[in-house]
Amino acid sequence: METAELINELQSFGARLVDPKAGADSRRGGAGPSDHKAMTIDGMTVMVPVHTAPAFESPYLVERPDAFGRSRVLRDGLAIGDISFPLRPRFYDLETADGIPYSKIAVLHGRDVLATTVLQTCIRYQSRTKTCQFCSIGQSLAAGRTVAHKSPEQLAEVARAAVLLDGVKHMVMTTGTPNATDRGAAVLCESAFAVKAAVDLPIQAQCEPPDDDRWFERMKASGIDALGMHLEAVTPEVRARIMPGKASVTLERYQAAFEAAVPVFGRGQVSTYILAGLGDTPEAILAMAERLIAIGVYPFVVPFVPISGTPLESHPAPSPAFMHAILEPLAAMLAGADLRSTDIKAGCGRCGACSALSTYERAGRAA
Ligand code: SF4
Fold first, then answer.
1. Does residue 286's CB lie within 6 angstroms of at least one atom of ligand 1?
2. 97: CB partners within 8 A, 6+ apart
3. Position in ligand 1 atom list of the atom nearest CA 352
């Protein structure tokens, strides 16, 4: 089986683990995709759902890893691929002077990404009628796995340790949306400024488009290298159904914000995150991707993962064929525009672990 095909299969179906403790602690709850474990397949570290409803029924079984974290994936008892689990990061063993474990402030994503949700609260999460149906930002907070607001000092301390102890290469800072004005840009600025003062680490910030484009200059001046403004869904009907609160920020506002942000951060350094499988057709996603690529925005398309405890926990994940129908032409479009995940300074597009997109890009280049 081709690597891209295997990644698509694993991300759609998830995997059962012979040893649930294998590898580093898995992501549960939080903003965006969750309930995964990082696994490395053919040099690519990808996030594979292991705690979702489909994963419990998955035809894929991952054997207990050996002492070096190496394991095999089986389907119907036949070994179809080798994988390894990234080791538990060393910074997880540390805590701040006031006794907060570093892992409650930021976590390792993929292989070398430090990720944090600066504000674990969100104006969109106050009521079930407004909340993004796929999001579990409040769950990890309610479960005591994180703190509501990570201070700039805490983030700087953890980022420095993660670079020194674990060789982390870039950082993702996302945030719940605190207000309807800057929409998180201000708290991301103060956080990035503190991290950059402590350690030389490329940072991607992620927020909704702020109400004023001058925030992009401020974010860049604060040390933010790349920006993610995440559409999640691309058609007005799907946005209104899946993310009724966030859909109040229109597609037109996203488009204008992308056009204003690209000259500030550079071509390919502004990205968006699109969840495939929520109702948008492959054609709609590819049409949006084409428009975004034309203005220098990298569209990172990932398979929707139904997170336990969210309103969409029983919604099916997209099939591998559905993902293939998007990712293969999308990788060709990116190559045609000379936009590469490997040129992104920081963030989800560079990490790539939540999608097989960068594997398609790599396969296209090799061909
Ligand atoms: S793609 Fe983004 S959300 Fe997914 S593991 Fe990488 S940094 Fe985290």
1. no
2. none
3. 1
